[in-house]
Amino acid sequence: MLQTRRAFLISGTALGLVLAFGVFRLPANVDAAEGHFDFQMSDDEWRQRLSPEAYEVLRREGTERAFTSPLNDEKRHGLYHCAGCDAALFSSDTKFDSGTGWPSFWDFIGGAIGTSEDNSLGMSRVEVHCSNCGGHQGHVFEDGPPPTGLRYCINGVALNFKAA
Q1: pTM: predicted TM-score of the whole model, two decimal places
Q2: For residues 58 and 157, what is the distance between their CA atoms, to the nearest angstrom?
């Protein structure tokens, strides 16, 4: 019980910091997903290609502040692409308003997303990354709508929307 309460308090404090101060940065040794990806660049090239906020999320596994992304309110039909490599990741057909403050989807475009275990912030979650470049997108949770029951909670700064 004490361990559960402690994890809850730590998680709540961390979320509060994210909401209050914007992009949350993990320790300096945390980088984008490890492994071989078709789209690769040096760290300097990533820094030149991305805005500072997008770099912190995509390459350092940061989190943008809730309710700050214009993509959270995007209603047009189209595709959401990785802001790092431009790979199509999500369709507007699977987007829904989760009320969390981040763009949310109940499914992804086949083969576009990879996952890994994330034990940061005192909790266990499933991290979501672009399967083309390894860029951190967000996390997936099991509290989404039918038909999958999943909620891909994605940082808007990690996406670019292209209207149909």
Answers
A1: 0.80
A2: 8
